Amino acid sequence: MVAQRPFLFVINIVVLTGIVMMMTVRATTDAPMFIFGDSNVDVGTNNFVTECGAKANHPYNGIDFYYSTPTGRFSNGKNIVDHIVRLLGSYQVLSPPPFLALVSQKLTFNRNILRGVNFASGGAGIFNDTGRVHFHKVITLEEQIQQFATVRENITTLLGSPKAADDLLQSSIYIFNIGSNELIEYPFNHSISDPAELKQYIANATQAYAVHLTNMYKLGARKFAIIGIAPLGCAPAARIRNPTGGCAEFMNDGAKLFQVSMQYVLTELSLMLEGFKFSLGNMYTVTMNVIDNPRGNGFKEVKSACCGNGTTDCEVGVTLCSNRDDYLFWDKFHPTEKASELAALALVYGEGSEYVTPMNFSSLAMYG
Ligand SMILES: *[C@@H]1O[C@H](CO)[C@@H](O)[C@H](O)[C@H]1NC(C)=O
Ligand SMILES: *[C@@H]1O[C@H](CO)[C@@H](O)[C@H](O)[C@H]1NC(C)=O
Ligand SMILES: *[C@@H]1O[C@H](CO)[C@@H](O)[C@H](O)[C@H]1NC(C)=O
Ligand SMILES: *[C@@H]1O[C@H](CO)[C@@H](O)[C@H](O)[C@H]1NC(C)=O
Ligand SMILES: *[C@@H]1O[C@H](CO)[C@@H](O)[C@H](O)[C@H]1NC(C)=O
Ligand SMILES: *[C@@H]1O[C@H](CO)[C@@H](O)[C@H](O)[C@H]1NC(C)=O
Fold it and tell me: Smaller CB count within 10 Å for the chain: N or C?
């Protein structure tokens, strides 16, 4: 019923700093996709978490979404995982809905979970404690994985056989985007001028990430599409605290260390765990290439936020730009829909190892 069915499609052209990727063939899959992470990929989870302080279900968020609806996405329109799912999927046009939304619609729950589920919660991090002080309550990565374990039981019941459920879950794609909030909270508990401490912290975080991924493997996951951390030090929130307006170096260093450390951790996991396949997206390079060459990538403003001045959240009353597609940043931390689409194209179709290793998301999805 949900076997992989490749489709043929036509042409897309991406220019990322002079590199032209011509895609003549587009293979897609109808395998379910499960999404875990933070505000970069949250599609409304936090709307259901009453006590949570990290919410985007209010204007101007969603101003360019269907009917200008704020959905809980931290974006003017779609976010990166909406684009990834649309590019990989043979029928999906957006991310699957939030788990908490599906649970609240009992009649359609069983039908919907077979298409995939999004568990991501804005403010969440790799560690249990991340997000708690600033946002009071978020759905931690650990809880997101517990929710997936429930969905797995529901799928097993539905398909009537553990074997059928295992087959489906092994062919599914697991997209992770987490770790940014560890870097954002880092200065509250650590010295930003001690490189050794930062290195140890990132090593701790990626080790904890590996434990979560191993738990996912034990639950039957095999295909991991991991999105790294963008150069958050160049986000409007970080630049505004810098008297020169430049990027906050410790945050960018942290993002780079995270990438290297994840490459190592994921390679180890793939050697230890039979059938573990991964694809690691380099959001640092993808985003930095736009910052270094805005016009070549179709942007005009890569420093300031479209919504707000870099200190406040995006909400009614703050400044709002009219030419959203010219901006890299939507709000003080999150990219615009346009920037997210460019990044998604690089991760899904990227050639070589600059943007995604050891294979692009498209190859991961079609694998096996
Ligand atoms: C994380 O929090 C959950 C409860 O929210 C708890 O059961 C679990 O032991 C914690 N994990 C760690 C590693 O502290
Ligand atoms: C899903 O599974 C959980 C755990 O087994 C169960 O409590 C819940 O009722 C199931 N949901 C549905 C809709 O069957
Ligand atoms: C950071 O420090 C605060 C107190 O200043 C504490 O409440 C919080 O749990 C700490 N966060 C982490 C991730 O350790
Ligand atoms: C890394 O983890 C170790 C062991 O849990 C802990 O003692 C140390 O403080 C952590 N270091 C940082 C910088 O978070
Ligand atoms: C940014 O906007 C907020 C609210 O709109 C305002 O209070 C603050 O002074 C502004 N900050 C700067 C640096 O312009
Ligand atoms: C994705 O990666 C595969 C394997 O490295 C490569 O053959 C392919 O050209 C890349 N791009 C697309 C669009 O699949």
Answer: N
Q: What is the reported pLDDT for 11?
A: 36
Q: In which residue are the tokens 């009453």 written?
A: 50
Provide the mean pLDDT of the chain: 93
Q: Report if pTM > 0.85.
A: yes
DSSP assignment letter at 280: E
- For atom 13 of ligand 1, the residue with the nearest CA is 128
DSSP-assigned states of every residue in 54-65: ----STTTTTTS
Q: Which atom of ligand 3 is closest in space to residue 130's alpha carbon?
A: 13
Active site residues: 39, 331, 334
Is 129 a pocket residue for ligand 3 (Cβ < 6 Å)?
A: yes
- Provide the token pair at 10: 């036509």
Rounded to whole angstroms, the Cα distance separating 357 from 282 reads: 8
Q: Is 203 in the pocket of ligand 4 (CB under 6 A)?
A: no
Average pLDDT for 121-141: 96
C-alpha–C-alpha distance, residues 332 and 52, integer Å: 19
Q: Is 229 exposed, middle or buried (0-12, 13-18, 19+ CB in 10 A)?
A: buried
Alpha carbon nearest to ligand 1 atom 10, residue: 128
Residue 116 has pLDDT above 80, yes or no: yes
The answer to whether residue 352 is domain-embedded is: yes
CA distances to 56, 110, 117, 307 from 228, rounded to whole Å, are 22, 32, 21, 24
Range of the domain at 81: 7-366
Q: Provide the CATH number for the domain around residue 258.
A: 3.40.50.1110
Evaluate whether residue 160 is within a structural domain: yes
Which positions ≥6 away from 284 have C-beta within 8 Å?
Answer: 228, 229, 230, 231, 252, 255, 256, 259
* In-domain check, residue 179: yes
* Domain total of the chain: 1
Specify the pairing of strand 19-23 against strand 12-16: antiparallel
Q: Is the residue at 338 inside a domain?
A: yes
Q: Which residue has the tokens 């897609």?
A: 28
Report whether pLDDT(84) > 80. Answer: yes
